[in-house]
Design the sequence.
């Protein structure tokens, strides 16, 4: 069973105008159920565009996007995915718990179940004690964890993340990476993760997809097999070997 | 300790200012019709306290009705304008121009449009004056939506109204209150000054003109003090309301 299938997908911005930009050209990509896949590449390679096509926040200029076996638009309307961005994007007028409840609220979930589900998600990211706080009272890393809890609240089969740890310091980033993997393993969620950090992509992923710009396209698909990830993984030979491989693919793509 | 630091400096300056004023009038032998001494104003204030209270309640009611009506209209108009970007592009400069007009000058005209015993002209002037700061600030708030919030709501397939209710309106609330804070002080000024142009003689403004025409300057000043206090009450009430309505901004 596949989580996401893209076939011959292209995206052109400002089509037919002088400032036309080919953001993506002829992308084919399949993401398996339960797989953790990273998109990596320099700025302007279309990785965020690709994520937004899967999320149906953008419509492809050509080709088809299938999510959870249905057209991307239908999948969005059915809330088949949860999404998190570089900015945590919490609603500052809602408490942490009410932020996590929001996607459930929009689905029409009852009050009691909403609260139970929000608390479940908050304990998953270790922030149950902060349920009654406002986002402004939390650190950046905590806010990002709330955003992840919110993305997972509807128990989506797919998690989309656009550089969610990009604005965090290295220590917090590494801790959240480990946490994220544990959560994904626990919930069986498939994940598409956009990043421009090579170690981050390698540490997290089953598959690293390397992209290059002008026009945005996939230049390499590198499977990563590091077994179960722990902090020791970051010192292992295999980890460094995979990093080298991804780096080489990135260089090759840009020459 | 923190409170003392906050309160003491303005208190010292205030008390010092009043003492200096008293001294200036007494030592400088300034005529009472030029500037009455604070002590004279104070004794009028005590003597006229029930009159001042009645007048303040009358003016305050006009200001309140105008403030509420103008604020509701301002928020509704801003919501309407924010729905169509062209409308909001056009309406902001127009609102700025209208706001620059001395709307208080409408008071005598409005007075002639209604019966002389009606409080409506004052309330109308107040509402018009309140409308602009509330409208302009609310519109700014409604138009400033965090792009991440926008994408997120789109990913939830939220409808336009849900988006407005859950994101636009609460996000604009701090801006609404910025407008209301400006408007609350303006409302009292408008309600009091509108009384200068005739009509019912029951508010602070008419009492000030009456006292002045009888050359009872300390009494006129006592009513001015009443107007000051009324303005402060309005402003502080708005601040309090803001704290209650936007608890996420004070708890850090």
Sequence:
């Amino acid at each position: 069973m596949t989580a996401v299938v893209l076939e011959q997908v292209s995206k052109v911005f400002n089509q037919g105008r002088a400032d036309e930009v080919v953001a993506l050209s002829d992308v084919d990509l399949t993401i398996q159920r339960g797989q953790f896949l990273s998109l990596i590449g320099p700025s302007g390679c279309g990785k965020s565009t690709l994520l937004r096509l899967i999320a149906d926040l953008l419509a492809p200029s050509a080709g088809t996007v299938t999510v959870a076996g249905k057209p991307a638009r239908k999948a969005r309307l059915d809330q088949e995915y949860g999404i998190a961005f570089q900015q945590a994007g919490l609603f500052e007028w809602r408490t942490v718990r009410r932020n996590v409840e929001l996607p459930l609220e929009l689905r029409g979930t009852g009050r009691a179940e909403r609260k139970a589900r929000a608390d479940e998600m908050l304990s998953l990211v270790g922030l149950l004690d902060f349920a009654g706080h406002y986002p402004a009272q939390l650190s950046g890393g905590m806010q990002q964890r709330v955003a992840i809890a919110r993305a997972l609240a509807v128990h989506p089969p797919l998690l989309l993340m656009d550089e969610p740890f990009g604005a965090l310091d290295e220590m917090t980033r590494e801790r959240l990476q480990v946490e994220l993997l544990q959560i994904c393993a626990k919930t069986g969620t498939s994940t598409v993760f956009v990043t421009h950090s090579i170690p981050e992509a390698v540490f997290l992923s089953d598959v690293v997809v390397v992209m290059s710009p002008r026009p945005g396209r996939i230049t390499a698909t590198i499977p990563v097999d590091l077994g179960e990830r722990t902090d020791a993984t970051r010192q292992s030979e295999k980890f460094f070997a995979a990093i080298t491989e991804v780096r080489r693919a990135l260089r090759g793509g840009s020459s | 300790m923190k409170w003392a630091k906050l309160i003491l400096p303005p208190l010292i300056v205030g008390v010092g200012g009043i003492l200096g004023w008293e001294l200036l009038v007494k030592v400088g032998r300034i005529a009472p019709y030029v500037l009455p001494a604070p002590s004279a104003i104070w004794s009028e204030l005590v003597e006229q306290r029930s009159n001042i209270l009645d007048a303040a309640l009358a003016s305050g009611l006009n200001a309140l009705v105008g403030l509420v009506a103008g604020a509701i209209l301002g928020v509704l108009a801003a919501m309407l304008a924010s729905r169509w970007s062209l409308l909001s592009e056009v309406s902001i400069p127009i609102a700025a121009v209208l706001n620059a007009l001395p709307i208080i000058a409408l008071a005598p005209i409005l007075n002639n449009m209604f019966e002389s015993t009606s409080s409506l002209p004052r309330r109308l002037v107040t509402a018009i004056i309140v409308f602009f700061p509330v409208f302009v600030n609310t519109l700014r708030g409604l138009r400033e939506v965090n792009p991440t919030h926008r994408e997120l709501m789109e990913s939830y397939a939220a409808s336009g109204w849900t988006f407005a209710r859950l994101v636009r309106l609460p996000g604009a609330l701090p801006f609404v209150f910025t407008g209301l804070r400006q408007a609350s002080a303006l409302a009292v000024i408008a309600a009091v000054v509108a009384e200068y142009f005739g009509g019912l003689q029951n508010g602070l403004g008419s009492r000030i003109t009456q006292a002045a025409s009888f050359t009872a300057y300390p009494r006129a000043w006592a009513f001015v003090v009443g107007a000051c206090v009324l303005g402060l009450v309005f402003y502080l009430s708005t601040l309090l309301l803001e704290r209650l309505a936007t608890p996420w901004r004070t708890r850090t």
Q: What stands out?
A: The CA atoms of residues 49 and 222 of chain B lie 9 Å apart. The radius of gyration of chain B is 22 Å.
